[in-house]
TrEMBL record:
CDD domains: RaiA (cd00552). Its main location: cytoplasm. This is Ribosome hibernation promoting factor. Required for dimerization of active 70S ribosomes into 100S ribosomes in stationary phase; 100S ribosomes are translationally inactive and sometimes present during exponential growth. Interacts with 100S ribosomes. Associates exclusively with 100S ribosomes, which are dimers of 70S ribosomes. The keyword Ribonucleoprotein applies. It comes from Oceaniovalibus guishaninsula JLT2003. SUPFAM superfamilies: Ribosome binding protein Y (YfiA homologue).
């Protein structure tokens, strides 16, 4: 497994890196899905340390967590505990999907854009209704079943996930968290 442990304007010592690797290996060893990459970033926010961790599994799932504490080790331990809780919560589902999936999740490249927000609602109407693009990035669109997509969205703590539905081969689908707490699924298809 590849580790990337870094700090934003913080010096990360060897002892902390060793602690992070050991603890992540212990947590991941309990659950199915071989980890392929772990990215841990430490930063400082006023008097607190912030730890953001992302672990990618060979099954295509990504587990991520964030935690803050006044001590850097405590921030990591809280973040690691959140990741362990997420994995424990989905252990049965991870095992089921792991058995069904013999190949890793296929990822497709897609374009992702950040659009400028309208600063003033009272301002004059712009000449064109085309939004201003601030940034262009590459996004990865996984090929998943609907169940895997919901699980991936919840593991990542994301409000929405765009994926390619591999079961029905219907192209791009979306799952999202609704205001009432349920999960919505958008499955565009043409009527024949």
């Amino acid at each position: 497994m590849r580790y990337q442990i870094s700090g934003k304007q913080i010096d990360i010592g060897e002892a902390l890196q060793t602690h992070v690797q050991t603890e992540i290996e212990e947590v991941i060893a309990k659950y199915p899905g071989r980890p392929t990459e772990a990215i841990v970033v430490f930063s400082r926010d006023a008097h607190e340390y912030c730890c953001e961790a992302v672990v990618r599994l060979s099954t295509g799932l990504t587990v991520q967590a964030t935690a803050k504490a006044t001590e850097i080790y405590a921030a990591f331990d809280a973040c690691n505990a959140k990741m362990e809780k997420q994995l424990r919560r989905y252990k049965r589902r991870l095992k089921d999907h792991h058995r069904d999936r013999s190949q890793p999740v296929e990822l497709f490249a897609g374009a992702s854009y950040i659009l400028a927000a309208s600063e003033d609602a009272d301002a004059e109407e712009p000449e064109t209704l085309q939004p201003i693009i601030i940034a262009e990035m590459e996004a990865q669109v996984p090929s998943l079943s609907v169940g895997e997509a919901v699980m991936q969205m919840e593991l990542a703590g994301a409000p929405v996930l765009v994926f390619r539905n591999e079961k029905q081969d219907r192209g791009i689908n979306i799952v999202y968290r609704r205001d009432d707490g349920n999960i919505g699924w958008i499955d565009p298809h043409t009527k024949t």
